Amino acid sequence: MKKRSTLFATTPFAATSFATTPFATTSFATMSFATASLLLVSALLFSLIQGCSTFTYYQQAIAGQYKVLSNRVDIESLIADPETPEELREKLITVRRVRAFSASEMSMDVGGSYSQYSDTKRNFVVWNISAAPELSLKPHQWCYPIIGCQSYRGYFQKQMAEEEAENLTRQGLDTWVGGVTAYSTLGWFDDPVLNTFVYREDSDLAALLIHELSHHVLYIKGDTAFNESFATAVELEGLRRWLTLNNQTERVRQHQQKMKERAVFISTVSTSIEKLKALYKSNISDKDKRSGKQQIIAQMKNQYQQAALDNELSGLYHRWFDHINNAKLITVSNYYQFVPAFTAMIAESKGNMAQFYKSAKALGEKDKESRDKILQAYLDSPAP
After folding, report:
1. Could you tell me if 209 and 330 lie in one domain?
2. Can you tell me the distance from the alpha carbon of 314 to that of 204, in angstroms, rounded to the nearest whole number?
3. Distance between CA 156 and CA 21 in Å, rounded?
4. What are the CA-CA distances from residue 25 to residues 19, 36, 44, 370 (Å)?
5. Which helix H or strand E contains 261, and what residues bound it?
């Protein structure tokens, strides 16, 4: 599965995938060189205080982000250029339409994001790592200046991500590394369209852009589940409106089918996650917990396959169930834990996205315990 992510706010799961990464700040195109240099030097000084490994991490992040930004080309010029391949031109025209839609129909301030194109010359822009204890679903945290702590870390170099995973594995943690096709810099930079995701089918491309733009609307420091659930709820609402507005009847049908596939996948994994949480909290021995863990994970794949058959689905997520551990499971939890709650808030706002954002921001100003209680109350209420 491919992935989506938030650099300096990275993430997993998009269209048919998972992902994420940190570090980014403001566009070199829109800020002075002196200001950009000051921000980067500050980050490096912070990392020097923290240690050599942190310095190395920020060094690769700065170099990788700079390379992506320095390769940007204005979309309008590419659309007008007769040398631009026709497939790319059509996709960039779709991007332009999604930007306009996001501003007018989703009440988003798109700014300069996705008005430029950058070719990374590879299939993934970053590689994301997540980790969790062997007998717990509490995610390992990485902390950064400005954005706080997150339950993942992204690298522009795959080898570095794998080395970090190996280091955490030696410490007894479950780890998972996945390639990321897209990320958001939370509005610090004008994020470009990347070759790693631009060739997606149009509805998937629209969903991805809406998701990433939603991170510009609201981002709560140190709360991955809140941020990704919010963005996913906005993505789903935005895609529904996009398809309806464009009278894409067949696309709507295909989208509904994908939603059925996703719902079965999420339901299966979420049920197993709850079983694992109960197992890990029990008073049995660690040996028995390990045995129970493997049993639940083995049953999960069989349950998904049966559910797909029962619902006459294609089994779109079949391969995801290979090599499951706690680190991989928490990526699903991050992306979908509170999606029904935010969907209910959109319904409460009668589809007025500006009003919904206002309510979500007010919720985001509360402490995490209060936020989670309110969101859980939505989850416990009958679905509208």
Report:
1. no
2. 18
3. 9
4. 20, 8, 13, 29
5. helix 249-281
Distance CA(298)–CA(310), nearest Å, equals 19
- Strand 153-155 with 126-133, pairing: antiparallel
For 213, the domain range is 33-236
End of a domain among 215, 236, 257?
236
Q: What 3-state class would DSSP assign to 347?
A: helix
State the pLDDT at residue 384: 53
Of 163, 155, 175, 169, whose CA–CA distance to 59 is shortest? 155
Decide if 27 is inside a domain. Answer: no
Classify strands 73-74 and 116-118 as parallel, antiparallel or unpaired: antiparallel
180 contacts 126 by C-beta, under 8 angstroms: yes
Q: How many domains does the chain have?
A: 2
> Is 196 inside any structural domain?
yes
Residue 192's nearest CA partner among 267, 96, 117 is 117
Place of tokens 């996703």: 262
Residue at 2 is within a domain: no
Do 232 and 288 fall within a single domain? no
User: Residue 125's pLDDT is what?
Assistant: 94
pLDDT over threshold 80, residue 278: yes
Is 139 domain-assigned? yes
Least confident of 113-117, 314-318, 358-362: 314-318
pLDDT surpassing 50 at residue 18 = no
pLDDT band at 236 (very low <50, low <70, confident <90, very high): very high
